[in-house]
Specification:
Layout: E1 7-12, H1 16-33, E2 36-42, H2 48-60, E3 64-68, H3 83-103, E4 111-115, H4 122-127, E5 132-136, H5 140-155, H6 190-202, E6 208-210, H7 218-226, H8 228-231, E7 241-243, H9 258-264, E8 271-275, H10 284-297, E9 300-305, H11 336-339, E10 344-348, H12 353-357, E11 362-367, H13 371-378, E12 384-386, H14 393-403, E13 407-408, H15 421-433, H16 435-455, H17 460-473
Parallel strand pairs: 1-2, 1-4, 2-3, 4-5, 5-6, 6-7, 8-9, 8-11, 9-10, 11-12, 12-13
Helix pairs in contact: 3-6, 5-6, 10-15, 15-16
The chain binds uridine-5'-diphosphate.
Length: about 475
């Protein structure tokens, strides 16, 4: 079949960190391959940013977006229900609506691509006999862990975090117990069970797309393609692996807001952008230390501030941008804004991150290492201070700091202990003022080129997307 006659539906889990990569993928397939795209976006009612983002995408994209309203799950969860479990329940409860939307489509999709938390759609794809692909919007290392965790589950006793040896994923880098993804931290919690199930569901798809590229993770991608032990968990014989990244949003040429105008006045690569993704939060004490660390460092900064949370670091995830931006600044140390008025800018709740990271004045990114943020940094050649909070971010931080050499990080995990102001001050200085920082920046710039090559015509990710389209056409 000719690719211009294809119709592909993409299903996105709630949360900006999921919606953004799905929209970018949809755009890429629509604009580069002329494919009709329908995005089914499971929404959250509490996120103002998400609502606005969807509305804006609706206005200008060449793709159709069908919001799937979130179902009230309050009777199925309580305050102790972890984020991973909430995601799974939200998607599970949305399935009847998703099914009826697909059933009512006059042009039935030729393929269904589903984002990480939507793998429970399998029976619906099978019922309508639609080829199905999983979209893993993060690294291939985490994908290998996802699918192989079912083996660890059978072979390993006790908590993973208590292991003395790293976990050995066949053909891949070993994984330190302290770096395991959040759902693996406590095997008695429901989110662990959901995580293992999700990993099994992945193996029933007709292939997987990964938002990474060959040169970034050559060893892991090779293992996913060829390592018999790792591939023994796959239920589909020739399960193809498509590294199609790094896909990220492009810069919007919109009005130059206050932040961009301020950046315009700063020196080349002199500013550190500080942000913890769409929903990462710090404890009150950590927020105070960070404020002092930034102030003492005397480096220029732009900091996206949201109110602290002394509970889970991901507590604001399904509420990105919140609905009340007034309170965020009230938690900063007294006088901070006045004292730092010539050094930095504080942005409550949400900033135009892609535009900021693409600005030539930005020379560093203190980040929670969410994968979208990471690739937005690397594709701009911006080195990082890795400050992992939740999900798979510890793995990302380890890869960035220890393997790729494009980040520095605190001596202790920020989720385990407070990172004190002196250490923050020190990291800011190392990144922005020392030879070590320069060396890290050079490595980040090399990755920027490697990413660009991967996506250019004839590059590995470009070819991989073409391979995916061909695979769909031949089904
Ligand atoms: N983001 C943004 N402005 C903000 C915070 C986040 O535009 O103030 C965007 C960011 O550019 C990225 C996404 O939200 O595309 C966050 O995704 P990521 O995977 O980095 O982290 P998550 O939010 O899923 O933890």
């Amino acid at each position: 079949m000719d690719s211009s006659k294809l119709h592909v539906a993409i299903l996105s889990s709630p949360g900006m960190g999921h919606l953004i990569p799905v929209l970018v993928l949809g755009n890429r397939l629509a604009t580069h391959h002329n494919i009709k795209i329908t995005i089914l976006a499971i929404t959250t009612s509490s996120s103002l940013t998400e609502t606005q983002f969807l509305k804006k995408s609706h206005e200008k994209e060449t793709i159709e977006i069908i919001p799937i309203p979130s179902v009230d799950i309050s009777h199925l969860i309580d305050s102790s229900t972890k984020l991973f479990t909430r995601f799974r329940i939200l998607v599970r409860e949305a399935l009847p609506e998703i099914r009826s939307v697909i059933a009512s489509m006059t042009h039935r999709p030729n393929a269904l691509i589903v984002d990480i938390f939507c793998t429970q759609i399998l029976p619906i794809a099978e019922e309508f006999n639609i080829p199905k692909y999983a979209y893993h919007p993060t690294t291939s290392w985490t994908l290998a862990l996802f699918i192989y965790c079912q083996v660890f589950d059978k072979e390993i006793e006790g908590e993973y975090v208590d292991l003395k040896e790293p976990l050995k994923i066949p053909g891949c880098k070993a994984l330190r117990p302290e770096d395991v993804v959040d759902p693996m931290l406590d095997r008695r919690n429901q989110q662990y069970e959901e995580y293992v199930k999700l990993g099994v569901e992945y193996t029933h798809f007709d292939g997987v797309l990964i938002n990474t590229w060959e040169d970034l993770e050559p060893e892991t991608i090779k293992a996913l393609r060829n390592n018999d032990k790792l591939r023994s968990v796959l239920k589909v014989p020739d399960y193809p692996i498509y590294p199609i990244g790094p896909l990220r949003r492009t810069v919007e040429i919109a009005e130059r807001d206050e932040v961009i105008q301020w950046l315009d006045k700063q020196n080349l690569e002199s500013v550190v952008f500080v942000s913890f993704g769409s929903g990462g939060t710090l404890s009150s004490q950590q927020m105070t230390e960070l404020a002092w660390g930034l102030e003492l460092s005397q480096q220029k900064f732009v900091w996206v501030v949201r109110p602290p949370s002394d509970g889970d670091a991901d507590s604001a995830y399904l509420n990105s941008g919140g609905n009340d931006t007034r309170t965020a600044l009230e938690y900063l140390p007294e006088g901070f804004i006045t004292r730092t008025k010539d050094m930095g800018l504080v942005v409550p709740m949400w900033a135009k991150q892609v535009e900021i990271l693409s600005h030539s004045s930005v020379g560093g990114f203190l980040s929670h290492c969410g994968w979208n943020s990471t690739i937005e940094s690397l594709t701009n050649g911006v080195p990082m201070i890795a400050w992992p909070l939740h999900a798979e971010q510890r793995m990302n931080a380890t890869m960035l700091a220890e393997e790729l050499g494009v980040a520095i990080r605190p001596a202790v995990l920020p989720t385990k202990k407070v990172v004190w102001r002196e250490e923050i001050q020190g990291m800011m200085r190392i990144l922005m003022q020392t030879k070590e920082g320069k060396c890290i920046r050079e490595k980040a710039k090399k990755l920027k080129m490697s990413a660009k090559n991967a996506l250019s015509e004839g590059g590995s990710s470009y070819n991989s997307i073409c391979g995916l389209v061909k695979n769909i056409c031949t089904r």
